[in-house]
Batch of 2 targets.
Target 1
Amino acid sequence: MVQGIANWNTGETQEWLQQYVDDWVAFYRKHTNDGNVASYIPILAEADPDDLGITIIGNNGLSVRSGDTEIPFTLQSISKAITFIVACMERGVSYMLDNVDVEPTGEAFNSIMHLEMKPVKKPLNPFNNAGAITVTSTLPGDTSEERLEPVFQLLEKILGYRPSLNVDVYESERESSNRNRAIGYYLLEVGFLDSDLNATLETYFKQCSINVTLDDLARIGLILANDGMDPKNGEEMMPRQVARLTKVLMLTCGMYDASGKFATYVGIPAKSGVSGGILAAVPPRVRDETMPFTDGCGIGVYGPALGDKGNSIAGTRLLRHIATQWDLSIF
Ligand code: DON
C-alpha cells in the first residue's frame, strides 16, 4: 500500500519502496550469469557483466534508484526510437510510414533475410537495423553532424543537458560494421534509402554511440508515458501522435524477436539496446488496487549481460518481476 506519495518538489523516495527494489535488484543480479555482454562490437565487451541497475521516475515525482545507476552507457538500439521520433517530427508521420512498415519481424535485430524474401522490399519496422537505417536516411542534412543536430536538440530538451558522443564506441561500431553496411547497400538497391549511404551509416553509428544514464532513460520513458508531454510542467516535448505511434512500435517490435514474450509477460512498451539498456514507458492505468506508479512512470534499466535475442537478461527479468508485483502491464 502506498502512503503519502512524494511530489515533484521533494522528489523523495519512500523507504519501503527502496527496500523492495534493492532486494529485487540484488536477487536478479545473480541472473546476469545467464547472459553475455555483446562482443560483436569489441568495445562493448569491456562492460562488466555483473552490473544491474534501475531508475523509475513517476508522474507525481516519486522516484526509485537502485543498483548500478551511475554507470554511463551508450544508447545503441534505443536510439532507433529517438531517431524515429525526430524523423516523424521533421518529415511527418505519413512520409515515415511510406518508408518503413510497422510489422514485427520475428527475426534477429540485424537480419537481412526479410529484405530479400518479401515481395515488397520495404523494411518491416523502424526498430530492426534495416528499418532504423532507412529512418536515419530520412533525417534532413548532408553531414552526420547536421542530421544528428535535431536528435541532440530533442534529447537536450527532454534531459535538460546535451548528452555526449562516445567516440571510442563510435569508432568500434564503425570498424565492425560489415553487416550494417551490407544492409545499407541492400536498402540502396531496393529503393528504401532516402539519402547518401555513407552519411546515413555515419549518422547511424553515431546515434548508437550517444552516452546516457539510467535517469536519462527513465526521463525519456516518462515523456513517452505521457504521450509526449512533460508531467512536471505540461510542456509538449513531441507531438502526441508521434509519442503514441512510438509506444505501439516499442510494444510490438522494441525487444526484437522477444517482443511477443515481453508484451505477454511484462506488458510495457519498451526499447532495448545491446549495451544492456532498456527504456520503458508505463502510461497511467486504471486499477482497483492502489499500487506504486499506477499514475504512470518512466523506467530505465541497465544490465549489459544479454540473452540470446540481444536484450538485457537480468534487466528483462527484473522488469517482469516489478511489472507483476506492481501490476504495471498496460493490459
Ligand atoms: O546496429 C548495431 O549493431 C548496434 N549499433 C545497435 C544494435 C542494437 O543495439 C541491437 N539491440 N539489441
Note: The two ends are 21 Å apart (CA to CA).
Target 2
Amino acid sequence: MSKPKVLVARAIFPETIERLAQHFEVESNQADEAWSKAGLIERLQGKAGVFTTGSERIDAELLDACPDLKICANMAVGYNNFDTDAMTARGVLGTNAPDVLTETTADFGFALLMATARRIAESEHFLRAGRWQKWAYDMFSGSDIHGSTLGIIGMGRIGQGIARRGAHGFGMKVIYHNRSRLDAALEAECKASYVGKEELLKTADHVVLVVPYTPASHHTIGAAEIALMKPTATLINIARGGIVDDAALALALKERRIAAAGLDVFEGEPKVHPDLLTVPNVVLTPHIASATVPTRKAMADLAVDNLVGYLVKGQPLTPVNPAVLAKN
Ligand code: GLV
C-alpha cells in the first residue's frame, strides 16, 4: 500500500523528516523558502497532512483548494494561524503542541521580565557602544523583582509556570486574571490570587501577558489599559502579537508612562513597529520563548506524533478541534 503524503511547510530538524519518512511520503521545505499562499496550495495537492509552524495561515480558501488535506499539525501551542471553524466545517483536524514547551516558555518569560526590569539589554548596548566611562550611583537603576507584585493575565499552563517561579523563587506576591478562576488547590500551589483585570493593571509592578490570541483578546492591552498601570511598571508580552496595541505601547514607553516593556511577539511579525525600535526602554526578542533545542525537538516530535497518530492510527494526541473526530 502506498504511504500517505505529507508536506512539511518550513525547515525542521533532519531527524523530524526521518521520523516522518518512516510513515509518509514526505515533501519538505528544508531550504526554508518563503512560499506564497498559492505556492503552499500547489504543494498541498494530494497531501493528507501538513506540518505547520504557526506561520502558515490555514483558512477556508486554502482548505477549499486542498481537498485531500485531513490534518494540519502545528509545531506551536498557539494555533491562531488556523481558522478552526473552517477546518471543522470541512472535516480537517488541527493539532497543536501544548505541555512540552510550558517550562521552557515560563523560563523565558521570567528571563525577559528580569532583563526588562533590570535594564540588561539597554545597559549592554551602552557598554558595547564604548559609553561606559565611570560608575554612577544612578546608572541603569531598574525595578526590583523580588518582593514585588507580579500580575499575570492568562493563567494557563505557562502562566502558572511563571507564577510558581515568581512566588516560590522570588517571593513575589502573585495576582492573576483569567477567563476562569483556577481551582483553590492550583491557586494555593501557585500562591496566586484572582483579581479583576483593572485591579491587576493598577496594582502590579510587573504585568506578564500569556493569553492565547483570539478576536476577543485582540488589544487586551491598549492605551486605556496602559493608562491604568503604575508609571514604574513593566509589561511583558510572550503571548502573541496583537494582544498588545504596539503603537500605543511605543508611545507610552517614549513618554515614560510605564517604565519598560519586554516583547517576544509583535503585531505583524516579523515586522516590528518602527517606534518600538527607537525607544530604549524596551527589550525586543524575535519570538524565541520556546527556543531551546530539547523543547523545539519535543514540539516537532509531538507534531509528528499527531500526524502519525491521526493518519496511521486514527488517534491524534492533541487535537484542537476534536469535533472532527466525533464526525468520523
Ligand atoms: C509559540 O509561540 C507557540 O505558540 O508555540
Note: The mean pLDDT is 97.
